[in-house]
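Hi V.,

Quick status before I head out on leave. The structure for the redesign project is tokenized and pasted below; the design run finished overnight.
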């Protein structure tokens, strides 16, 4: 083989890996976009039993073709408090089963030699998907086109990788070099390292299958490389966990321990097999003769299913172990007191439909924090008791953080492949974030009015306090209808919110009239009256900002 052929083979291998990765990404993003509601429903069922959790993880990963994406999603849910550690563990276990689907597809695509191969037949779907993308107008049909094209491109990439491996297999020097790597530990490390680099165990497994079929490596070598890929795939989840809460770190650690445990168990079994003069390659070669691609794909499936069967009963112990490794710390500077996201997580950007759902949850949480600060401010100005002022300051910092950082997150999210509905929703979310931050600002103004009352050693009359309490109840009624409208797109709730907002306007007008009456009777001082009127004006503006949040559903 001349130098030009070698260079061509190397470039073909790189191109094949690149096309395979792009195909996985296309399938993943489009499948998520089409099935985001179903995925959400699936994840909600994880609390039923361990086996349900495993099933959900397997089904989700089989659909989106990425165990890393599933793991990152789960870490985001744990970070947001949607899932417990035990629930997350079972989903991650299932994700490892789901990821074996890609290997089985690759094995299926490598049948056929003299006749038209299945790989060529499946690769033709890339062209079909491209035609759909070129002519489809509806968003759903375009997503289907993207899935179809991605599926076909998997096999285009596979064909290029397989062709490159075939060229290398003709070089005795390459085969002799690869034959040196017989040590199982070294092969596991190689599989883990390469998978960590490309961040896809599917690519590593597919390459191992093509190398085995081409005769570049033995089946036994491919088996240990595939084991290593299961460890390497944990890197994405570990990166996501390191930048998140303690529970998210624990989830990433569970993912790593689970995969490493499976490798250790199977390597120990492999050692005992070698003592008997056989190995995994011999066993799977006998079970699935004359089909090396099936032999490796089936080992990958057996390995993951068996690991789940071994570890699943130990889920509780695994949760306790990672809790001890990453313990809780009850300190004043604990992570929960610092401004942080409650629901969104940077790595969710790889899963746009889920990220959009979590953005909405974050905005709803922001609305609740703003209401909490309003309540604290009302309590302080009526009682001049500053016991909760530190909680108020913590909430205020959180609102300011969300106003800035959530907007940045949405900007990044808008660059993703989104449905038209999600894109419209995110465009309105910017305004909602600003409105809710302004609610916090007006609550802060009310605290300042309380400070002035305290400085002048004055307080509101009982009648004034009663009116403020009634106004507070109206704001709460408005908030309830706003949240219902915003959460469910409920137009009836929006209509009630409008009515309540008008009631707030009418009530603040009456408050001004009552204040003038009290001022004329001498039961209220000008200084107290000024703070009272300022408070009513600020509450009226708070109501305006909350109604703005509800109005956004008109755009959807």
């Amino acid at each position: 083989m001349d130098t030009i052929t070698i260079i061509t083979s190397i470039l073909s291998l790189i191109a094949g890996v690149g096309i395979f990765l792009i195909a996985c990404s296309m399938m993943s993003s489009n499948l998520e976009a089409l099935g985001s509601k179903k995925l959400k429903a699936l994840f909600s069922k994880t609390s039923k039993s361990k086996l349900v959790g495993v099933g959900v993880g397997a089904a989700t990963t089989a659909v989106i073709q990425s165990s890393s994406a599933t793991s990152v999603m789960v870490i985001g849910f744990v970070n947001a408090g949607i899932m417990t550690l035990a629930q997350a563990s079972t989903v991650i276990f299932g994700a490892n089963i789901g990821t074996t689907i890609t290997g089985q597809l690759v094995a299926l695509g490598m049948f056929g030699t003299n006749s038209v191969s299945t790989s060529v037949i499946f690769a033709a779907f890339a062209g079909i998907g491209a035609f759909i993308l070129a002519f489809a107008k509806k968003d759903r049909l375009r997503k289907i086109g993207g899935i179809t094209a991605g599926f076909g491109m998997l096999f285009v990439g596979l064909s290029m990788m397989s062709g490159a491996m075939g060229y290398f297999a003709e070089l005795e020097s390459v085969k002799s070099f690869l034959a040196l790597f017989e040590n199982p530990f070294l092969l596991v490390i190689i599989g883990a390292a390469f998978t960590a680099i490309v961040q896809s165990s599917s690519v590593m497994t597919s390459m191992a299958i093509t190398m085995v079929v081409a005769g570049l490596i033995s089946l036994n070598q491919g088996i240990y490389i595939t084991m290593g890929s299961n460890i390497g795939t944990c890197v994405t989840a570990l990166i996501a966990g390191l930048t998140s809460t303690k529970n998210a770190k624990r989830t990433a650690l569970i993912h790593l321990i689970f995969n490493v445990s499976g490798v250790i168990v199977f390597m120990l079994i492999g050692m005992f097999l070698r003592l008997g003069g056989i190995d995994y390659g011999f066993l799977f070669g006998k079970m699935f003769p004359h089909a090396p691609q099936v032999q490796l794909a089936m080992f990958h499936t057996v390995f993951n299913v068996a690991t789940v069967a071994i570890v699943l009963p130990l889920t509780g112990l695994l949760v306790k172990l990672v809790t001890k490794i990453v313990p809780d710390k009850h300190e004043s500077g604990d992570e929960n007191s610092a401004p942080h996201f409650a629901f969104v997580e940077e790595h969710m950007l790889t899963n746009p439909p889920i990220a959009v759902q979590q953005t909405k949850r974050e905005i709803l949480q922001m609305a609740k924090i703003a209401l909490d600060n309003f309540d604290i401010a009302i309590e302080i100005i009526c009682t001049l008791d500053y016991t909760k002022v530190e909680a108020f300051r913590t909430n205020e910092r959180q609102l300011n953080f969300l106003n800035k950082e959530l907007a940045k997150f949405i900007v990044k999210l808008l660059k993703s492949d989104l449905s038209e509905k999600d894109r419209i929703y995110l465009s309105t979310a910017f305004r909602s974030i600003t409105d809710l931050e302004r609610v916090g600002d007006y609550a802060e103004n009310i605290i300042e009015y309380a400070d002035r009352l305290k400085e002048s050693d004055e307080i509101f009359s009982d009648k004034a306090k009663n009116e403020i309490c009634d106004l507070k109840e109206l704001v709460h009624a408005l908030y309830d209808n706003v949240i219902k409208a915003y959460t469910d797109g409920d137009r009836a709730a929006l209509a009630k919110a409008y009515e309540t907002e008008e009631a707030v306007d009418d009530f603040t007008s009456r408050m001004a009239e009552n204040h003038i009456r009290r001022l004329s009777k001498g039961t209220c001082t000008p200084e107290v009256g000024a703070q009272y009127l300022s408070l009513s004006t600020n509450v009226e503006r708070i109501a305006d900002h909350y109604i703005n949040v509800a109005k956004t559903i008109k755009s959807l």
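Above is the designed sequence. Residues 330-335 have pLDDT under 50 and may be disordered.

G. will cover questions while I'm gone.

Best,
W.
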